[in-house]
Amino acid sequence: MPTGERLTERERSAIQRAAERAGTGTGLTFTVCFGAAPGDVRAHARSLHAGLADSAHSVLVFVDPGARALEIVTGAEARRQIDARGATLASLAMTSKFSVGDLAGGVVDGLQMLGEGGRRPPILHTSTP
Amino acid sequence: MATLAPVTTLQVLRRAARSLVRGVMITASVACAAVGTATVAVATNGYEEATQPGVGLTVVQTLLLYVAAPGVLFALIALVVVGPSLGKGPRHRTGTSLATGPVWIDGAGGQHRPAETVTPGRQGASDQGGASAHW
Question: Looking at this predicted complex, what is its ipTM?
Answer without folding.
Answer: 0.76
